[in-house]
């Protein structure tokens, strides 16, 4: 399994200070091994532009991603007044610190599953989009994200996949008080996100938020984006860069 393959390489590569390019080559080399990644045979209907599947990954694969999340000690804290509080690790950073997550995001088996669900061929968003695959960490009181639609920075349809890695209350027994909510026709619907739950949705069509976290709680999400056409207009590229600066700081200007 590609996740295990990359996991074995990750420790040696990072210790040697290998450049991102080497990690990319290792990940690309192992893509073909993703074809045997066992994903759910369940194919929920996408008529409401959102689906949720519990126990999405086989336990061994999920544990590899969970262990990678547990290694992370450096992230960008984000505070956009009223809208968002939390921490994020960008796509570029994940190539260094969690190539297992990048390998899963780039898995052909995962692309095929998402494509079948949405009824259109999807592909990863480009490397220069720092949110293509990112780790979202909510671990302080009042970490949240307010009501919003996801902006689409590409000409084709745009989708977000959220894989819940950690979701615990202060005692570590049940899920946190932070809830993913979807609003439709004036009614709010809670989308449960216990660990190993995948939520796939078309963000430009789904009005959603995550309610504030309480003291001692923790929520870690692997966020992945896909599109049907990765080309973009000049305005869309500018808007994406503004978003990346807000989320990842001024260094996003050099991506």
Overall description:
There is one protein chain. By secondary structure, this protein is α+β, with helices and mostly antiparallel strands. The protein has one domain (2-254): Jelly Rolls (Sandwich), CATH 2.60.120. It is built from 7 helices and 12 strands. Strands 1, 2, 3, 4, 5, 6, 7, 8, 9, 10, 11 and 12 form a 12-stranded antiparallel β-sheet that branches. Helix 1 runs antiparallel to helix 2 (20-29). The longest helix has 15 residues, at 234-248. The chain is globular, with a radius of gyration of 17 Å. The relative contact order is 0.18. Mean pLDDT is 82; it is low at 1-20 and 29-35.
Quick summary:
The chain is an alpha+beta fold and 255 residues long. The chain has 7 helices and 12 strands.
The residue fraction in helices comes out at 25-40%
User: Count of DSSP helices?
Assistant: 7
Terminal Cα separation, in Å? 31 Å
Mean pLDDT: 82
- The beta-strand count equals 12
Beta-strand content: 25-35%
Give the CA-based shape.
globular
Low-confidence stretches: 1-20, 29-35
* Major beta-sheet overview: 12 strands, antiparallel
Tally of individual domains? 1
Q: So, the CATH homologous superfamily?
A: q2cbj1_9rhob like domain
Gyration radius from CA atoms, angstroms: 17 Å
CATH architectural name = Sandwich
CATH class: Mainly Beta
**What would the CATH topology be?**
Jelly Rolls
The ordered string of helix (H) and strand (E) elements is HHEHEEHHHEEEEEEEEEH
Q: Would you tell me the structural class of the helices and strands? A: alpha+beta
């Amino acid at each position: 399994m590609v996740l295990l393959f990359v996991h074995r390489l990750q420790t040696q590569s990072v210790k040697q200070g290998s450049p991102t390019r080497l990690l990319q080559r290792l990940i690309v080399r192992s893509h073909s091994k993703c074809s045997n990644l066992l994903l759910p045979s369940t194919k929920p209907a996408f008529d409401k532009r959102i689906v949720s599947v519990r126990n999405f990954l086989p336990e061994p694969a999920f544990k590899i991603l969970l262990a990678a999340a547990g290694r992370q000690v450096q992230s960008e804290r984000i505070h956009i007044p009223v809208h968002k509080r939390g921490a994020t690790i960008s796509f570029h950073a994940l190539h260094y610190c969690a190539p297992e997550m990048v390998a899963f995001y780039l898995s052909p088996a995962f692309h095929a599953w998402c494509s079948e669900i949405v009824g259109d061929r999807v592909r990863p968003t480009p490397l220069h989009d720092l949110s293509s695959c990112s780790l979202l960490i909510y671990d302080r009181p009042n970490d949240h994200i307010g009501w919003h639609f996801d902006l689409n920075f590409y000409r084709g349809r745009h989708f977000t996949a959220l894989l819940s890695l950690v979701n615990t209350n202060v005692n570590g027994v049940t899920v946190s008080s932070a809830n993913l909510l979807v609003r439709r026709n004036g009614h709010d619907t809670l989308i449960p996100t216990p660990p190993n739950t995948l939520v796939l949705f078309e963000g430009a069509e789904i009005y959603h938020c995550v309610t504030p976290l309480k003291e001692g709680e923790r929520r870690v999400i692997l966020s992945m984006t896909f599109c049907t056409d990765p080309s973009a207009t000049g305005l869309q590229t500018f808007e994406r860069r503004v978003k990346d600066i807000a989320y990842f700081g001024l260094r996003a200007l050099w991506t």
